[in-house]
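Progress against Task 2.4 (sequence-to-structure conversion) is shown through the following example record, which the project officer requested during the mid-term review.
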Amino acid sequence: MTQPSFTGRRRQRKTKLSVRIADAVAHTLITMGGMGTIFAVSLVCVYLVWVAAPLFFSSSIERADGFSTAAAADDVIAPAYIAVDEHRLLGLSYSNDGTLSVFRLDTGELLDHSRIFEDKTPSAFEINARDGDAIFGFEDGSVSIGQLRFRTDFLSDVEIPTEIGELEIGDVVSHAGGVIKLTTERQHRRHSVSIDMEPPVQLGDTRILHVDLSMRPTGPIFASISEGGAMHVGTVQRRRNLMTGETTLTLSGGEAEIPERPEAGLPFRVLITGIGDSVMVVWRDGHLIRYDTRNRQQPVIAEEVSLLSPGDEITAMRFLIGKTTLVVGDSGGGLHTWFRVRLDDAETSDGLVLVRAHELADAESPVTALAVSARKRMLAAGYADGLVRLFHITSDQLVAEDRIVEVSDGVTALAIAPRDDTLFATTTQEFLRWEINAPHPETTFRSLFKPVWYEGYPEPRHIWQSSSGTDDFEPKLGLIPLIFGTIKATFYSMLFGAPLALLAAVYSSEFLSPRLKGRIKPTIEMMASLPSVVLGFLAALVFAPFIEDVVPHTLTAFFTVPFVVILGAYLWQLLPRNTAARFESLRFPLIIAALPIGIALAALLGPIVENIFYAGDIKAWLDGQKGGATGGWLLMMLPLSALAVAFAMSRMVNPRLKALSRDWSDRAVAVADLCKFLLGAAAALGLAVMIGWLFGGVGFDARGGFVDTYAQRNALVVGFVMGFAIIPIIYTISEDALSSVPEHLRAASLGAGATRWQTATRIIIPTAMSGLFSAVMIGFGRAVGETMIVLMAAGNTPVMEWNIFNGFRTLSANIAVELPEAVVNSTHYRTLFLAAFTLFAMTFAVNTVAELVRQRFRRRAYTL
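Structure tokens generated for the chain above:
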């Protein structure tokens, strides 16, 4: 029995104090670091929720002090129109007798009460509350166009009236039909009503029943109905003589006879769209005739539509901002909206059809008054029983409501303040006001995540379009296109990068010599240091234009490069064992050489493939201009056909070939394997062509799905370039996981007679599966959150198509582009934070599931 040798040092059986202190410090720091990380991530989540949550808060209207109608106007009992200024200091009301009243909103004091036209009373009028543009029609068949608007200016020291005395900051005094307020900057700001009417223009000699007006950059466009049954549409141009300074008005346009409807009586309203291309004549029973007025000299009937169910009558009508969407209120308390959409099968002269798009909440009494917001798609409705409601049209949401208790004839007129912060209503007894608390009426769960019927679209759709160049634009804040774009970018990036990275990791770990591995692995890891903005720059300005010119060659290369690499492997087996061992060091350089050979073969075959399957022009074929469906199915079915053929050979051919080749030489087996591969490749190609031909024969076309119209910046380019970003991450972690498998498992497998490939696929990979899965998920996280590459290379268009040849917009890219220009705390701003929270939630959910799967793989690995 051997005795242990004495080393001259006695082993201490007690841990040193310094070691215990270091261990305690390390334990504390690591715990604090982990908890701090969790806390920081949680704070990010809390902040995103904090900013986005107000989107879903309920809205309200709160009654404020009002005053009696008699205080606003001496003899005006029921104003037909009311408006207020943006500072909520002045209000005006117009009555059907032609009188205009100006009053203070804080006290109800009447400041001015006069007739707009001294010599005659209008028989019809229409005033745009947003801009103050107005048109009046008269008994003698003439019309006058002008403006009734609030005016704000600042008084100089010499202009300040002496009779107003000394004012304190915030004081408001009445003066000369308006008010003067001392601002916080001690400036005297004057508020008044400006009336500027053009001289009347004669249309005919019969009474004007109804008028409407739209303003265009070229001048006003108006429509009118006369008592004689004629509809007139025209423009008024102002010409000023530079010599005399005299201004003359020139009328141009045309007329159309309105079909008689004796049972319905005279028309109830006439309306003209915002750009003046359509005029609508409406009767109380809901019958509408729409005229195509693109040629104003010769308007023609485009279509006739019934707006209501039988038995109901129209009681109120108004256009929303932009004068495209028409709101109709009826005697049954119903509210619904109509707008024109373009249909391929439309039989109208302009190709547009009027459709009923939105149904708002019904009430129990008739609608008596409507008012629209000057900023949003918000609508106020008043009813005969005193109910007042506030709606948002895009979201189909009842924002808030209140009821006037003492009312006899219902709500006679409504107005929404220019800043959407106050609602005003008049009855025959009083003038009322409500403070509006509705910062985000356009956002609901439905409007954000479900299809919405936007103005001008033939059906509800998922759309993201947050801004435009005009004030009457309808924001479209659907998040689904951005979520779809994120998934599409991740899918194509992982489809390209993950297989390459995993296979490269397996090769490096199990087949590559340690000397080459020591050089190649650091080189690949250095790829991760490339800035994504540089990759995006290269993708947008180098790869995308290049690939656009060689599309068929690029697609062919996806098949020729793997074919050449695998063919080279089978050819290598033909070498005698001694020769193969002697040139073992050349195997990896030959694999690298297969890449340019495969690309050269693709360059040779690309034009041939384009001529055979894509009618000689693959871009025109993708656009559906020429060619059959076989080529599209070939692209999609060739990989699946190759897998099907490989599976069939493994089940049917390989067992028989193995039994027959027991006594064959190595070279004979290698020749048989080569022939099997070539026959399998031909069978896969033939199977794909046959499936494509069959699908095309029965009318199924792949175009419109995963392949469609080609755009220069597309998912193919993004997937290729994104690989440079995710391959190093997946490769490094996967290779480390494979190399960490205990050596005794590898040695036992090889010692039992398994090949290196069998050892890798049946022992090493299952053991390292948890690490491989983690690598893929980390790469997935990088692909989901990537911003600059998809921003620069994907076109940043929020479309919902799986087409690999067009672009997309991701959540991260959208946030990067729009957040710097979003108004803080606006609906757009908070929706972007909701998009960030959605991205956070998506990655958190996927990573949670991935962790559960990884732990399962890890438990299975412990059993080996």
